[in-house]
Amino acid sequence: MTKHSFGGQWTFIKLEVLKRYLEFFNTALQNQPNPNNPFSRVYIDAFAGTGECEVKLDDGTPSTISGSAKIAIETSPEFHQIHLIDLNPKHVAELQRLGNGAARIKIHEEDANSALEKIISQITWRNTRGVLFLDPYGMAARWQTLERIAATEALDLWYLFPISAVCRQAANDFSKIDEHKAAALDNVLGTTEWRTAFYEKSNQDSLIEGALPTMQRIANPTQIATYVHIRLSAIFKGWVSPPIFLPENGSPMFVLFFAVSNPSEAAVKLSKKAAEHLFNMLKTKKIGSLHASKLPSENQPGLF
User: Which alpha helices (DSSP H) does 30-159 contain, by range?
Assistant: First the structure.
């Protein structure tokens, strides 16, 4: 068995948030829009890993836990379709073992952006609703992919934005950003405007006679996360949550966003209520607790 080792305390947080939301989502939609003809429910995992992951606790002790793919497969009520994507052949072999040949579980061994393009184009979204988990390896998720997700108007997105990787590529001194790094930032942010949004001319240059003007990064991680939030809100017609920084203490590595593509007022109200409940649990340190309260349940017609 191939072990997928990564992460820390934030891994437990993101996976518990996902688990609770998937249970809520399928329970809320199991009789929508009506019991005789409910929506087909789909889960898509763009960087699925192996189904299990080994995470080091704060004291350095390794702990093996269920990953996002296994969580989705075991969600009850179950999803009608599950799409698990990974480019690593060893990960794919583990996902195939996990899927055990079930017809509802599709394994895709290819680039996540390409696979998502195909999957999204093949699904009839008029009678399908779903959840997409986007936890990319580095900065592998392209902005164009996010635009395709938003355009379905049927997917709820959990997106772990790689803030630490973006800050590494966006060097403090703009002159240290080569073409490769600039292109990577263009892809993940979907624009070239970060050059003027994140940088300005250094005031120190005017104090040094003959010095060439330099551009220095003025945007800190919080400001970059706010910038991404604004851009996500421009393409997701429903709602985008404020950024949640992970880990909670120290320098953030990721920013967790929740985005609703469905513009329906009822759909936004329900999804937003569930997400905000989860965020409040996180804020009050109830995520991970055995005594954590359950998500609110809704069984009203026509919500999604």
Answer: 68-74, 89-99, 112-122, 143-151
